[in-house]
Amino acid sequence: MAVRIRLRRLGAKKRPTYRFVAADSRMPRDGRFIEILGYYNPIEKPAKVKIFEEKMIHWLDEGAQPTFTVASLMKQVGFLKKYEMLKKGEDVSDITISETITERPKKRKKKKKETKSE
């Protein structure tokens, strides 16, 4: 059984919230899962992320693979750095995990330059 750590969508229409879950890779996105590992709320500004560290470490040690999006969120809050240091045997007591993600600036369209016609 290949276990993936992925996001499970909850919430109303156009008001999503997500849970980090450990699930069999063959199950559907919002289907059966093994355990809840945290949550992510992109609607709040700044976006809120809560990771249950002990559970997440347990599943990563068991060989669960995070999806690209989950890995990105874990990196932004600082969990991946803490996990890598923990695996190396370094002291991680002074590292704290952020609970918010700063919003990246939106892309702006470039305006066309006005040309002079003579």
List the helices and strands and how they pair.
Layout: E1 3-12, E2 15-24, E3 35-41, E4 47-51, H1 53-62, E5 65-66, H2 68-77, H3 79-88, E6 100-101
Brief synopsis:
This protein has 118 residues and is an alpha+beta fold. 25% of the residues lie in helices and 31% in strands.
How would you portray this structure in words?
It is a single chain. The protein is of the alpha+beta class and 118 residues long. It has one domain (3-101): S16 Ribosomal Protein, Chain: A. It is 25% helix and 31% strand. Strands 5-1-2-3-4-6 form a six-stranded mixed β-sheet. The longest helix has 10 residues, at 53-62.
Oligomer: single chain
Strand order of the largest sheet: 5-1-2-3-4-6
Reading off the top of the CATH hierarchy, the class is best stated as Alpha Beta
User: What share of the residues lie within helices?
Assistant: 25-40%
Topology pattern, helix = H, strand = E: EEEEHEHHE
In CATH terms, what is the fold-level topology?
Answer: S16 Ribosomal Protein, Chain: A
CATH superfamily: Ribosomal protein S16
What is the tally of beta strands?
6
